[in-house]
Design brief:
5 helices; 55% helix
């Protein structure tokens, strides 16, 4: 019995984008702008920061900034306010969930980031993956 040869694909290296990386929108908070300055260049370099993705990135930066702002409030005022859980804790929990979903959408999680970047070694197919489909 003879096996099939794996399909070899040529993977082009990532070239630098010709246009400059966009700056953070002025309406973002200081924390959110810091997230933008860290995240936008990476997405831009990977050719993932198009105009339609910029709004999603804005929302992601806003949510991460909100998490940090809530943390500052909780550090200053405590987890409990007037015998009840501080409202900033609930806001922070919601912002964490939303930021995590947006991070996956933007390919910012380690798994999605690896899947969106071509490897230098080329296709790592072991020859069996086309039989599993």
């Amino acid at each position: 019995m003879r096996g099939r040869k794996p399909k070899l694909e040529v993977v082009e290296p990532i070239s630098a984008p010709s246009n400059p990386c966009p700056k953070a929108p002025s309406w973002l908070s200081a924390h959110a702008k810091a997230v933008w300055r860290k995240t936008a260049p990476d997405l831009h370099r990977r050719h993932l920061l198009s105009e339609d993705v910029a709004a999603t990135l804005e929302h992601y930066c806003h949510q991460v900034g909100l998490v940090r702002e809530c943390e500052e409030i909780l550090q200053r005022e405590g987890q409990v306010l007037e015998g009840k859980a501080h409202p900033a804790g609930r806001i922070q929990a919601g912002a964490i969930k939303e930021a995590r979903l947006l991070a996956a959408e933007l390919a910012l999680t380690p798994h999605r980031k690896a899947a969106s970047m071509p490897t230098d070694e080329g296709d790592q197919d072991d020859g069996w993956s086309d039989l599993l489909a």
